[in-house]
Amino acid sequence: MRRIVSVSLGSSKRNHKVETEFLGEKFSIERIGTDGDMDRAIALIKELDGKVAAFGMGGIDLYIYVAGKRYVIRDAKKLIAAARITPMVDGSGLKNTLERRCIQQLAASDWLQLKGKKVLMVCGVDRFGMAEALVEAGCDVVFGDLIYTVGIPIPLRSLDALRRVGKMFAPIIVNLPFKMLYPTGKEQEVIIPKHSKYYYEADIIAGDFNYIKRYLPPRLEGKIIITNTTTQEDVELLRERGVSILVTTTPEMQGRSFGTNVLEALLVAILGKPLDTIRPEDYLRLLDELDIKPTVTRLT
Description:
This is Quinate 5-dehydrogenase. The protein is an alpha/beta fold.
């Protein structure tokens, strides 16, 4: 049995482990949170390096992509450097393939008319493929990158605005301590409703679940959420707040959906190719072969 491990800076309360089979091969897939402790995460990676098939990097991204340019997050370099033998991925390869295709599949579905829908993406640069696909599907998208990431209460209402702001702020943001940008450890369990009017105005809230949950208003009757990495407790939280439909871009595995970093690590292990030789079409081909599709859960 081959082992996939996501080492996450997130809360250990969200840990999960499953044993499953893909293409006739058995896999153990595990998420281990280190409660925001970077040193503990590095030590765990070093301990497991060479003993597992692939690592996922959870709770932090290695890269953000803005208008075709890649920016490396400083703190993530420390984690990637600890994996000297086992390949390690942050999920960015799937954010631009799987998540883009997820939106295209939803747009082609019979039950959801995306064109004309009002969408809030709490952070667009984190998932630029999804952002582009939503705009291409005819959605009216508000990007909350300035509002929810750096605390500037200005909504961005176009991809051009997102690109311009991304180019301006990305070189600075990637060199800040990651805890300033994204909830890690126990902070992932804290909900602080903030600028809720953008949640209320939207038909759909899309993007990273920890960002969405961080600023979740008390009530969201009839809303649709498109995200990933939800536990059973998260699903119940959304149900209690009136969310109508939950769409996760990654498949559910025994009670929860894993992050894109976990799924990308699984694909890397199956492909068995050096990371620098893997192309987007490799992921798309394998996603088709595995029949990976969005998971739609009706909550109300």
